[in-house]
Amino acid sequence: MTITKKEEQMVADERVRAINRVTIKGSIINVVLLIFKFVAGIVGGSAAMIADAVHSLSDFLTDVVVVFVRLGSKPEDGDHDYGHGKYETLATAAIGMALGVVGAMLCYGGADKIVDAMRGEALEQPGWIALAAALMSIALKEWAYRFTVSVGRRLDSPAVVANAWHHRSDALSSIGTAIGIGGAIILGSRWAVLDPISAVVVSVFIMRTAYTLVGQSMGELLEKSLPEDMERQIADIASEEPTVSAIHHLRTRRIGSHIAIEMHVRMPGALSLYEAHQHATAIEQRLRERFGEETYINLHVEPVKVNGEYVKP
Question: At residue 2, does pLDDT exceed 60?
Answer without folding.
Answer: no
